[in-house]
Amino acid sequence: MALPGQGLVASVTEQSPEEIGDLYLDVSEAYLEVGKHIQALPLLTSLVISEKYNLAVVWLRHAECLKALGHMDAAADSYSRVVEKAPQHLEARLSLATLLQQLGRPKEALKALEPMYDSETLAQDSAAAQKELKLLLHRSTLLKTQGQTEGYLDSMISMLSMLLKVRTHTVTRHAVD
Q1: φ, ψ (nearest 5 deg) of residue 138
Q2: Alpha carbons 79 and 83: distance in angstroms, whole number
Q3: Distance of CA 5 to the CA centre of its chain
């Protein structure tokens, strides 16, 4: 059975993704919205191998599509590309770590949860600090499930330290106001 608009999609794919990549992305996202992952995958693959659309957001859609299709190893590779291109993308890091743990690659899973920000950024940017805390929470949970008690305790201490700094900074700031 032919899908509505299938002829239009076929004519789109005859064009170079370098020239009409936005349309490729729009069509693939429409497919993803209705659960047609198998139809979205070739479009997304064309985009990630292109020069112009080899972007973190496209790799993220590619990873999500692969994951939905059950291609976990390939999805992990795509999530790795997202993290490589956008190191502060928290959700990509968490998804990557979860997949790697499920694939039996615990060391790589922990590596995906390494700190994203330096201490100076964390001291000045509360949004970054919140993201880092969420990352540390996932890292500590992963360390605990892996039986790495010392690493788990180190992560918990880091989290408590960050929480105290954020709280102290907030209290000091309000006292000045």
Answers
A1: -65, -40
A2: 6
A3: 31
How far, in Å, are 71, 85, 92, 118, 125 from residue 88 at the CA level?
24, 9, 9, 11, 13
The whole-angstrom separation of Cα 90 and Cα 77 is: 16
| Tens place of pLDDT per residue across the chain (177 aa) | 444 555 556 667 778 889 999 999 999 999 999 999 999 999 999 999 999 999 999 999 999 999 999 999 999 999 999 999 999 999 999 999 999 999 999 999 999 999 999 888 988 888 999 999 999 999 999 999 999 999 999 999 988 988 887 665 555 555 555
Say if residues 166 and 126 touch (Cβ distance below 8 Å): yes
Structure tokens that stand for 35 in this block = 């659960």
Extract the tokens encoding 148: 């790495």
